[in-house]
Every structure is written in structure tokens, then in C-alpha cells.
Amino acid sequence: MLHKIFIEVFGENIHSSQSRAKTEGVASFYLACSLPVKVLGTIIDENLEMFSPRHKNSNEPITLRVFEDGDQQFLMRSEVSNALIASSTLNKRLDSEDDKYEFHTISLEEIQKNFDTKNIEFIHYPILRAKHRANPISIPIPGKSDEFCILAIDTFFQYFKELILGVQYYQKVDGDNINAIFPALKTIFKSDCTTPYFLFIGDRGAVRRVVISFFENFGGASAKELRKVETDGFTVPFLKNELAYLGLTTTFPEILDYAEVVYAEVDKHKKESVLRTCDLFDAVEHCQLNCVLERLPELKKFVHSQKGCHRVYGFKCEDCNSENPENQEDQKLSILEKEIADLKMSYQKVLEENQQKTLENQELQQKNLRLSVKNESNEVQIKQLTEKLTHSKLAIDDGNYSIPCTSQLKIQCLICEKPIPPGHDQIIKCPMCKRRFHSKCAINWLKEHQQCPACNGELPKF
Ligand SMILES: [Zn+2]
Ligand SMILES: [Zn+2]
Ligand SMILES: [Zn+2]
Ligand SMILES: [Zn+2]
Predict the structure, then answer these.
(1) What is the 383 CA–ligand 4 centroid distance (Å)?
(2) What b/e sequence results for 180-207 when a residue is b if at least 16 CB atoms lie within 10 Å of its CB, and e otherwise?
(3) Which carries the bigger pLDDT value, residue 462 or residue 156?
């Protein structure tokens, strides 16, 4: 089936019968992707009259096709040009820059701004695609109703799908020749054309000419086939494993970097609950497409100017990001969000530090409390001791020089250096320093001295 479509798009001579079997094996999964091309062609044929230029002086309005693709509305320049020639009500000329196989467009906005359109009936004509395959549109050449074109961007996607999955080009090619096909391609996929344009898809189309000459030189090397996905779907590691198995990590050492973003988008676009083999084909294709576009800036520019960036899964286009104010807003928003997150983090940190400090504070307070309790009990003890001391002092003072010793402290007589036992009643106290001595010792001491042996103060005479 794919082979058939490919022939319709690119012509009959591309595949040898050998590669044909392989291609059909790969292709069986996109059976559902092809719309009834012929049926559509018939519809266009039957209604072709309305796309054809009118004769001069006709009272009927001129009809022009307005193609709609996403938010773009555009007309084929040559169709507009023919209408301008045919109509006396339109007095401006519009030159067409088409060659025989390439049909350029002009936006509806520009037509409405520059021309009197009151006698023109615009027929809206949405660009329809089944998956990535676009429905053919009749070319804007009168009398050629059986010849068709599709948008260049659709040709691009169909061509690369065939190159990647059908021909398995990047599995077979060696690193040096990886971009060998590009010089031919860039004459078809033009990076300097900022409006959409169509490409002829018949036998004489530029794509077919390039493709044939390229594949004639390419030959028929062999390549590994993707393995079937089990019924429970596949994961990012499985995809990475397949990319390596197919030998693509040799052709594109960076290809594994795209596995995650591409997988995420395939997962977003899938229709069923688990990812199946056809989703694996999509993922493998788009991983390669990313690698190819990053290596060929001119092709990347073509994809961008033909508004195809969003159709490459996981594709990062710097031009889209800088052009799209919504993206700029998104970027601003994400920067703000990051700042807020940072602030939250540092706030959290301060909170935690505070909590830590509070804990430490509490510990310190408890310690303080314990200390002050201890202090209090110490004070009580000091008070008790002081009271005791005062008491004993009073008792001693009361006893004058010869009193019973009531002190519990071990007191030494400074003269004989022997202890004065508690309750000993024969002591004498120095009135100056209050030291105590045995009465006997003191009397003997006073026989030879007049001073206290401790403080040298005058001692009383007996
Ligand atoms: Zn872009
Ligand atoms: Zn003394
Ligand atoms: Zn003594
Ligand atoms: Zn003394």
C-alpha cells in the first residue's frame, strides 16, 4: 500500500522488485493513513469548472480557491493571476513566480487588501491530511484537471517518511554520505520562501526527478527491521534499545537524546491506551527527523517558514519560540514561576533555620530554667550555711575567750597544730582574727609572746 502511494507521489521507477517486498512489510501499518485519493480526484474533476478562470464579460462571479491550513488562508498566485486577466472588474496584475512544477501562493489578507474583490466568490478549501499524508489538489493550470499537487511541507514529510521508514536510508548510509541527498533536496524544499507553496506530484514532478536520480546511485544495502511491540506497549528504554538495534546510534550519535521528548509526544498523540508497533515506527521516524533537521539548518528553515515545526515530534525551533508571543509569554511565565519556586525554597530554608533557632532557644531556656532552679537551691543552701555560720559565730562570740567549742568544723590550734575537738571547752580566741587555740597552749605561748601567732595582733594578758 505504501509502495502504491509512493508511486503515486514519486513515480513508478523508484523501487526495484527486491526493495518492494521490504517496503510493503514496513508499510502495512499505515494502511489506515491513506485516504481514497482517486475518489477525491474525481470530486475535484467534477467540480473543476468552479476552479477555472472565467471568460471576459461573464456576469457570473469569479470563483477562487482559498486554501486553509491551520490559521493560514492563501490562494494560488497563478489562479488569482488568471482571474485578473479574465476579469475586467479587476485592474491590477499579479505576476506569478511559478515554474512548471511549483505553485506559489498569496495570502487572502493580501488579496483583500490590494484588490477589489466584490466580484470574487471565495471557495474555502481546507487542506486535509490523513495522518501526515495530504489530499492532492488539482494544479492551477487550465485543462490539466487530472494533475495534482500538494503543499511543499506535506511533500517534505511524505518524502522523509519514505526515506526513513521505507528506504531505511539512515540505517544504511555511512556517516560521510549522510547529507549526500541534501543538495538536490534544497532546490525543492526552499528555505527562502516565506509563504506556503505547492509541488506537482505527477511523473514530471521535481521530487520524483530528484528521488529517482538519488536512488539510482544509492543501491540496495540491507538494514535491520523494527521488532514488534508486545501487547502491553513499549517504554522509553525500549525505544532507545530499538534505535541502537537499528544501527541509528552509529549514524546519529545524538539520537538517544531525542528519545524521551519524542516518546512523550507519540504518547500524547496515540489513539489507543497502549503504544503499539505503529507508534514505535512514528517514534523512530521522528527521532531521525530531529537529527536530520538539526544537521541541515536550511531544511530546518524550510520547515519553519512552511509552518511545519509543530509536526515534528519533540522539535525545538528557536525561530518559533522567538516569533510566537504566546511562547514569549510562556517563557516569561516560566521564568517567573522559577523565580517564585526559588523564593519559596529560600523562604522554606529561612523557616527551617528559624525552627532550628527556636528549638535551640527552647533548649537554652530550659537549661536556663534548670540553672536558675539549681541557683535557687544553691542560694537556699548558702542561706542555710550563712545562718548556721552566724549561729555558730554568735555562739562563739557569746562565749568570750573561754567557751565550749560548738563548731562542727575541724579546727586546729595554730600553736600545737593539733585539732581542737568539737565541744572542747578550754579554748581561747584571738579577738582580732578570731582564731582559736587550746587554753593551755595559749597560756604557754603568752609566757614568751604578746602577739597572736596568726595575725600578730595583741593578745589579752592573763
Ligand atoms: Zn519553527
Ligand atoms: Zn589572732
Ligand atoms: Zn594547743
Ligand atoms: Zn590573729
Answers:
(1) 27
(2) ebeeebeebbbbebeebbbbbbbeebbb
(3) 156
